[in-house]
Amino acid sequence: MKRWIVGVLAFCSGLFFSLVVANGANEVKIGLMGPMTGKWASEGQEMKQVLDLLVEDVNAKGGVNGMKVNLVVEDDGGDPRTAALAAQKLVTQKVIAVIGTYGSAVTEASQGIFNEAKVIQIANGSTAIRLTEKKLPYFFRTCPRDDEQAKVAVQTIRKLGFKNIAILHDNTTYAKGLAEEAKGLLEKEAGGVKIVFFDALTPGEQDYTAILTKLKSASPDMVFFTGYYPEAGLLLKQKKEMKWDVPFIGGDATNNPDLVKIAGKEAAVGFYFLSAPLPKDLPSGEAKTLLEAFSKKYGNPPNSIYAVLAGDGFRVIIKAIETTKSTDPDKLADYLHKELKDFPGFTGSIAFDEKGDRVGEVYRVYKVDEKGQFILQP
Amino acid sequence: MENFLQQLLNGLSLGGIYALIALGYTMVYGVLKLINFAHGDLFTIGAYVGFTLLVSVGITDSVDPMAALIIMGATVMLFVATLGVGLERAAYRPLRHSPRLSAVVSALGASIFFQNAVMLIYGARFHVYPQGLFTKSTLSLFGLYLPLVKVFVLMVSLVVMTLLYFFIQKTLTGAAIRAVAIDHNAARLVGINVDKVVTIVFVVGPALGGLAGLMVGLLYGQITFTMGWLYGLKAFTAAILGGIGNIPGAMLGGIILGIIESMASAYLSIAWKDAVTFVVLILILTIRPTGILGERIAEKV
Residues of B near A (CB-CB distance < 8 A)? Predict the structure, then answer.
């Protein structure tokens, strides 16, 4: 009698598992790792909004090679330790590829885990140079690199004719890398440009008056801040309160409309920053369609270029799966490295070099006007 | 010299805020021997309640700025105090007789709960206090700059701290709090309602934390749901520096911490500022393990 029950149970569970497996074969799992909580949560949540939109779109058209796309979202909290856990969770859920993440230090903590598990990772906001210098076979990024950013920063500084430069970073992988790269370039080119100040602040604090007082005593005629927008906004605001009138230029992590909200329009006006083109300045037809669909669904256009770059990462991997008709990581990586050329992304044409870096695509210079708008500089 | 004085002012105004938050840690520790890790998040909630009053309720539309400030201060303190009492009931009182570690874990859990509740209610983006409500003028004396808001904030914290000091030292309730801080059972023997005293502590501590949150919002303008963590950490350090459980110690510790921070960034390195701060903390604790004013164990609250 008992044996009979056990037999039925075994049969049922076998049936159940085979059904699950059958279902599993009919979908493609793509991971999204992003800062859904924590200080960069507004970036992460917009990344998710863009990907949700694109997944809906792909599935409405019948999926990829007849398989539905299933987006698995994990929160990295903008924190390297949480990212390592998030990466492990994604790996155990057997995702084929992962989009993300935003901060370089956070990406770095997850790179090894994905690489070992042969999961393709396409970062969207991590611009630190050394991420691709490791030559990991499954790592790609849709954003540009900091050496290019530093080059543009130095060109801008020279074009605007500043001589005494202060460089301030925040000790994160990204900000420190960019600051050091820019410092190296400025020193090499000599050209009468002097670095009068080089130091780091602690992100997440709110009182930067001590730092600004010290900066002021070094009397620079321009400050290059390579950190993120929350701190940049406060620096601008407190600089204005000190009645110190010095131009600031920021790296691409200061590119977020919240900067103007935090600093106030009066304090933000005249602030320069480097960035890949903003969503509103993207020329391609694909971008226009995305902006329209996004506004229709969420009521406002996307604010962050990194969310759009995450969307590019997603479309690239779908394209790879479609073309290679495979979900084998080696085949996909090989395709992305060698065969993908001139893919019409939202942010311009996309191709990757052998390190996984995106080729082409240039940084632009933006300036904040009196209304607090970001204006593309010629 | 000018630079030195400017940095001293910078440190003083930052230290005033640290001190106000440190008071909440120190009072709870004095009475319950518990580090209330959720205190930093109560501080955050104070900042967000102030934001709601300013933006959604539009309090400055109907009354003049000074009255608005007083109403805001009172509402924020009342709201956060209510939360504080609820927190004690739900998360700490059931664990009063369990090992101390359980209560600490419960406090950490409460902290995570509050932080994420704020994120879910208000969203993850930065919120900004409306600008230009209160005077934006900056005092400039002998080449030093001091925004008037900062002077105001510093004055408010000093007044509140003095009031608290007299409340603890001179009133009957204050005496009861001090008695419970020394020994729960002995206090109960002489007829003190320990639960009531603990409730009072959880009214006063969180109310001060909430007030500090409101002032940070008014002062720096930018608030975010994670802000409580760093302020909490600094204020906790200040409380230890001054001697945890000791009210004048928390005030002194906060102000010293603010000044060390600004001096370290002025004369050493900005990047090493926190390292310098903690080296000073370690040095003080090696010489005086109870903190600067920690010797008055009998009086600690």
Answer: 3, 6-7, 10-11, 13-14, 116, 119, 123-126, 128, 131, 136, 138, 140, 145, 147, 216, 219-222, 224, 226-227, 229-230, 261-262, 265-266, 269-271, 273-274
Q: Report how far residue A268's alpha carbon sits from residue B167's, in angstroms, rounded to the nearest whole number.
A: 45
Question: What's at A338, amino acid-wise?
Answer: K
Q: What count of Cα atoms within 13 Å lies in the side-chain half-sphere of residue A100?
A: 35
**Domains along chain B with CATH numbers:** 2-299 (1.10.3470)
**Chain B residues in contact with A302 (beta carbon < 8 A):** none
> B243: which 2 tokens?
């001697």
Is B250:B242 a contact under the CB 8 Å cutoff? yes
Question: Which strands make up the sheet holding A272-275, listed edge to edge?
Answer: A194-200, A164-169, A222-225, A248-250, A272-275, A364-368, A374-376
> What is the nearest CA distance from B249 to chain A, expressed in angstroms?
23
pTM of the model: 0.78
Q: In A, which residues are within 8 Å of B11 by CB distance? A: 210
How do residues B177-225 score in pLDDT, each as one tens digit?
Answer: 999 988 889 999 999 999 999 999 999 999 999 999 998 998 888 898 8
Question: In chain B, which residues have their Cβ closer than 8 Å to the Cβ of A44?
Answer: 124
What confidence tens digit (pLDDT) does each residue in B41-63 have?
Answer: 999 999 999 999 988 887 777 77
B265·A39 Cβ contact <8 A: no
Give helix B247-267 / helix B273-287 axis angle, nearest 10°.
140
Which one, of A249, A208, A203, A254, lies nearest residue A229 by Cα? A254
- How high is the ipTM of this complex? 0.78
Min Cα separation B10/chain A (Å): 6
Q: Give the closest residue to A120 by CA, choosing from A147, A102, A99, A104.
A: A99
Strand pairing class (A222-225; A248-250): parallel
Spell out the domains of chain A, with CATH numbers in brackets. Answer: 8-144+282-350 (3.40.50.2300), 147-275 (3.40.50.2300)
